[in-house]
UniProtKB/TrEMBL annotation:
Pfam families the record matches: Acetyltransf_17, Acetyltransf_9, SCP2_2
Record text on subunit structure and interactions: Homohexamer; trimer of dimers.
Domain N-acetyltransferase: 22-179
Recorded superkingdom: Bacteria
InterPro entries in the cross-refs: Acetyltransf_17 (IPR041380), Acetyltransferase_Eis (IPR051554), Acyl_CoA_acyltransferase (IPR016181), Eis_dom (IPR025559), GNAT_dom (IPR000182), NAcTrfase_Eis (IPR022902), SCP2_sterol-bd_dom_sf (IPR036527)
Record-annotated active site: 150 (proton donor), 432 (proton acceptor)
Transmembrane segments: none
Binding residue positions for acetyl-CoA: 109-111, 117-122, 145-146
Entry protein name: GNAT family N-acetyltransferase
Family listed: Belongs to the acetyltransferase Eis family.
UniProt KW keywords: Acyltransferase, Transferase
Keyword Acyltransferase: yes
Amino acid sequence: MSLWKNAPIDSRAHAAVAANGLDYRVIDTADRAEFDPYLQAEMRGFLAGEQTDEQIGGARDGLSFRRFIGVYDPASAHPEQPVGTVNSWVTDVTLPGGRTLPMWAVSGVTVAPTHRRKGIARAMLEGELRTAADAGLAIAGLTVSEATIYGRFGFSPATYATDWRIDTRRAAWVGPRPDGRLDFVSRERLRDELADLHGRIRTARPGEIEAWPGLWRRMSGLVPGQQDAQKLRAVRYADPAGATRGLVVYRLADEGEDFTKHELQVHYLLSETADAYAALWRFVLEHDLVSVVQASLRSVDEPVRWMIADQRGAHVTTSEHGWLRILDVPTVLGARTYACAASLTLRVTDPLGFADGTWTLEIDGEGAPTVRPTDAEPDVTLSVNALSSLVLGGVRASVLSAAGLLAAEPHSAVAMDRAFASVDTPFLSLWY
Ligand SMILES: CC(C)(COP(=O)(O)OP(=O)(O)OC[C@H]1O[C@@H](n2cnc3c(N)ncnc32)[C@H](O)[C@@H]1OP(=O)(O)O)[C@@H](O)C(=O)NCCC(=O)NCCS
């Protein structure tokens, strides 16, 4: 078993919740008497209804590989159900240049509404960050449903995502028409091919993380008790040699009164080649009896914009999506490659201490970095949040400078813009 899964509770976090008469412990995910009430509490924290035994079983199967820790109130009427939850695991995140780093992924942060604003979330998050740093992790990450919480712990957005709503009458296809073929695939095959395809593309995209098997089961509608699973449809694109190069998972929403005006909702569209991308987008946009195509969690740089006759037929909204939190500056800055040579001294501030310090970043003509601690005067002074946003190359130093989030002479901010730029747009295609 991985060492991180049952790493002991951070003693400072334990003491912080104990001061309020609460207990804090790592869950034994093999013990249903402990794990099932935990999962009910987490779902309640995310405002879901009470889960059936079948649904809890599905969650148990999909998530038990993770580390689960809970805050318990012994005085509660249901002391077996935690009042605070968080789960975490170690997974790879891709950096510009294609190297990956092990990342402490954090998920399922909830505090019961009866116990809010007593510092439980703070104790859990600071505790998890210290546990991650003690385990030797250089970076942590999460996706958020409440974006205002995590900045205070050093997390900051590093990838952005777009939601699309496309009027198919205005979005006549003007893109390529590749030669490969499209076929529906079974749920089981979809699960396996999604895992394979994502495994192949994830290191080509800064910001993408390694997925977990339960995610593909859910994406394929194979989790017991999963709502509306039978509505999911999946199509694969095979290249002329017969190899799967792309998959789209979608559902058709109820049409209301007019059968010609269904909404096609793209749940996931994953492609390995430009041909697969074009063929699958064309498939959804030219689907008969569909007037609107809706797609969430797409890149900020979708080529489909240029494949439709009228770009105004697509309504696109952008939001932050993948949040990172650097714990070890030299390891993270030293693991990516850069766009050009540069020499920069960075002063990083971190109220929690992990990333605090001053480093010189020397980048050679090949984009390879050397990072060393220094006492030199900094060219750039920035918080760990700002550096965590910049590290994938999707956010620019000069923009953060203009926003007052980074202090630098303009030429240093521009040097950082040029060096940190990423050829591939940073993107995370998953929620976790
Ligand atoms: C969000 C949530 C986890 C906060 O838990 P909590 O125990 O009440 O938080 P804490 O008391 O530890 O507060 C920590 C800090 O975050 C702030 N904070 C907490 N919830 C906040 C919110 N919803 N919006 C903005 N700030 C928030 C607190 O003011 C406090 O700030 P400070 O310590 O800098 O003064 C809890 O309200 C919850 O479970 N909400 C529903 C589920 C959810 O949104 N989870 C987050 C998923 S991404």
